[in-house]
Design brief:
Elements: H1 19-23, H2 26-50, H3 59-101, H4 103-111, H5 116-120, H6 128-153, H7 167-192, H8 197-201, H9 221-235, H10 237-263, H11 266-294, H12 296-304, H13 309-316, H14 321-346, H15 360-387, H16 390-394
């Protein structure tokens, strides 16, 4: 068998996962970059603010101190925790996709006598994407940190502070996540390599297309198209998560950023909306690209049997619309509850704090922008499906 890319030398010393394979992990780098950026800002500030606690004498300053510490923990815990879970899901998705794509090569290596752990331990390189993301995120936070501290100092309720370097925090946000995700990659690959050799060698894609004779769009076709749409969703549950997560990020971050202008500052608002839009569009584009790629042969067979471009797009892409709507609704509730807790609980004793009410204007703007962006992206991928020729698909 001719390998497209050698995965391991026959002496078993080195597994060669190509640069292109590592480059595909840019989504993980972006997510971990955002996580490291947010956590570095708020955790570094929390560590520094603890050092000036004894210098605070006025009652308002003490209230502000408690509120800042609590809000820092909430933001770092909720945002960082959410992004870490997303990174775990992304990493598992990419490792699984790599093993599925190179099942024959890996199966042959296993049949030649290479142990599961010997093959799986080479997957540590997937953790490099986490290292790249955390380093960039931490570096960006270090550059922005003086501005972040100046914004806090402008309130004049706490003694002025300047950012200090904390080596333990650096280790916790860069080294620890990198090692953790390297080990996770190896362990998950080891679990996947437990499958029998024949299971790795055999292609598991079965396509069944039934087309009624003589009628192109009769009612007999509808159950098939409906079933295909449902099966596309069921067979790719991780992609369902990513589509919903992209809508969640868009909804929560855009609405939160518009509310933050009234509750905090424009810099916080800009930071929120930037992170939200990056995560939303990155995960949505990655998800839909994977959906189209994993269904290329199905699309080809549908074209052979006379299905239109609209029917192909509908069966492959349109089933994700309800998922995105649910994600948007969850994001709307999430941002409202989080801001409500921050204002009514954490800053409850703070004077001159404005009351927080649900921002229907922000909801309307965010919803219209989301629907427009989502439908444009769906249209672009529908056009991509229409441009795919049957010959080019079947020769892949």
């Amino acid at each position: 068998m001719k390998f497209e890319k050698p995965l391991m030398r026959l002496d078993g010393e080195k597994m060669l996962i190509g640069i292109k394979d590592i480059a595909k992990l840019f989504a993980i780098s972006i997510v971990t970059c955002c996580a490291a950026f947010v956590c570095a800002l708020f955790l570094n500030y929390n560590i520094d603010i603890v050092g000036i606690k004894d210098k605070i004498t006025n009652p308002q300053g003490i209230i502000m101190y408690n509120a800042q510490v609590a809000s820092g923990k909430v933001v770092a815990g909720v945002s960082g925790g959410c992004l870490v879970v997303t990174t775990v899901v992304l990493l598992i998705f990419y490792v699984k996709n790599y093993i599925d794509s190179h099942g024959k090569e890996l199966g042959i290596l296993k049949a030649l006598g290479y142990s599961e752990i010997n093959i799986a331990r080479r997957f540590w390189v997937f953790g490099i994407s986490v290292l790249i993301g955390t380093v960039i995120g931490y570096a960006a936070a270090a550059v922005y940190m003086p501005t972040f501290y100046d914004i806090q100092n402008d309130m004049e309720l706490l003694p002025e502070m300047q950012p200090e370097f904390h080596s333990f925090l650096t280790f916790s946000l860069i080294a620890f996540p990198t090692v953790f995700f390297m080990l996770l990659s190896v362990l998950y690959a080891f679990f996947k390599m437990k499958h029998p050799v024949l299971g790795l060698l055999r292609e598991s894609q079965n396509i069944k297309i039934r087309k009624s004779k003589g009628k192109k769009n009769d009612e007999k076709d509808m159950p098939f198209l409906t079933d295909l749409k449902k099966n596309t969703i069921r067979s790719r549950k991780i992609l369902v998560f990513f589509v919903g997560f992209s809508a969640f990020c868009f909804s929560s971050m855009t609405q939160m950023s518009m509310s933050m202008k009234e509750l905090s500052s424009e810099s916080f608002s800009f930071m929120m909306i930037s992170i939200g839009l990056i995560l939303a569009f990155m995960t949505l584009l990655m998800s839909l690209s994977s959906v189209v790629k994993s269904n290329t042969k199905t699309i080809a067979m549908m074209k052979v049997f006379g299905y239109s471009q609209k029917e192909c797009s509908s069966s492959v892409l349109y089933g994700y619309r309800p998922v995105s709507y649910v994600g948007f609704a969850v994001g709307t509730v999430y941002q409202y509850m989080l801001l409500k807790i921050v204002v009514d609980v954490i800053f409850a004793d703070f004077e001159n704090m404005p009351e927080f009410h649900f921002n229907f204007k922000a909801l309307g703007i965010s919803l219209i922008a989301f629907l427009a962006a989502y439908e444009i992206i769906i249209y672009c991928y529908s056009r991509k499906i229409s441009r795919q020729s049957v010959k080019s698909i079947m020769l892949e």
